[in-house]
Amino acid sequence: MGLWRKFVDINVKLSSFFNLDNMAEYGTHVEYLRLAALLFSSPDVRRVMDVAAGSNWQFPPFYKSAYGLELSGIDIDAEGIEANRLLDWRYTGDVCGGQKIGSGSYDLVTCYSGIEHFHDVEKFLNNAFAALRPGGALIAQFPSGLAPFAILNKALPQILKQKILNLIYPRKTAEIGYAVSYDKCRYSEFKKAAEKAGFVVEYYLPSYMSSGYFTWFVPLFIISQFLDLIRLVFGTKDMASYNLFVLRRPGEHFPIKWTWHSKF
């Protein structure tokens, strides 16, 4: 095992030399944090529901007091959400089932890398729409079902995936080893489901880079980056590896200038 760990560590370091500058897969991850901060700063946003909240909030703890937020969270993992000490209110339940996440009382619903785990995204979107007041927003970042790692993830049995993750990323197994569904995770599927629920798409950002999972073996990492570039140049939004959406429940709200892009 010691030799294997050295092999992985060396490959991870070597992969960093071949990583394309400004083309990392974390574009949507970082943009999620930036846009959520913009929403937190809006005078319209005070009550926030974090879906799939887990054991920690993705933002600096001082954001909560700086923006004057009342922070609630919901997760199917009771033990995990109980450890999330920044939450004012904690709820345990399935956001795709009968568990409601509010009744027209929230200004903002956030969901970071959770959509891919939901077994019924349409029900989640309906619940999120009902949880928001008119003019409220939902911001969600999640991988597409057509991302190379997602296709591999769906093809492998859960037990085998856990063993592979334990072997390659032992420190991250608990974080990335949850079962996935990838229901309605392509751009067109999610957009259609969101609009069916009553939302308006206010902002969208795709990311085609998805090679981070393959840094453990340099040749595979280089091949993956090449394929990412091909999809970036020739791909449609449905071919994106990651999606970032900001959805609005129709109603009066403080306008935010997201970007100079306007068509989605």
Identify the strand order in the major beta sheet: 3-2-1-4-5-7-6
**Residue ranges: pLDDT <50 for 5 or more in a row?**
none
Q: Report the total helices.
A: 10
Q: Report Rg.
A: 19 Å
Question: Helix share of residues?
Answer: 25-40%
Strand content range:
15-25%
**What is the mean predicted local confidence, pLDDT?**
87
Question: How would you explain this protein's 3D organization?
Answer:
This protein is an alpha/beta fold. It has ten helices and seven strands. It is globular and about 55 Å long.
Provide keyphrases for this structure.
single chain; 10 helices; 19% strand; alpha/beta; 39% helix; 264 residues; seven-stranded mixed sheet; globular; 7 strands
Compact description:
The chain is of the alpha/beta class. It has helices spanning 2-18, 27-40, 62-66, 78-82, 121-131, 148-155, 158-168, 173-176, 187-197, 218-234; strands at 47-51, 70-75, 89-92, 106-112, 132-143, 200-207, 242-248.
Q: What secondary-structure arrangement, pairings included, does this model have?
A:
Layout: H1 2-18, H2 27-40, E1 47-51, H3 62-66, E2 70-75, H4 78-82, E3 89-92, E4 106-112, H5 121-131, E5 132-143, H6 148-155, H7 158-168, H8 173-176, H9 187-197, E6 200-207, H10 218-234, E7 242-248
Parallel strand pairs: 1-2, 1-4, 2-3, 4-5
Antiparallel strand pairs: 5-7, 6-7
Helix pairs in contact: 5-9
